[in-house]
Model the fold of this input.
Amino acid sequence: MTTSHRFAPLLLWLQEPTTQIALGLIVGALVGDWRGALDADTASALVAGALPLLLRSQPQETPDQAQQRAALLQLLVQAAPATMAALHRDGPSKLPLK
Done:
């Protein structure tokens, strides 16, 4: 399989408007929390609200894949507040972005 064929599903997913909106919300929430423009609760709500847009169902999805997707979504929604709280608690100095 060539590289272009291997990344074709990812590129198609990135071109979806819902994916772009969700990524914009997530990046905006992270940067807003990191810079102090948003509190941790607001940033967590934005991230948790954007996650379903990233994990939309596929037309050819099997019931097992749908169940796995739902479980992953639940884990991500539960992890978002803890991640935002840790960022708020530890501050941007702990982020590996320097």
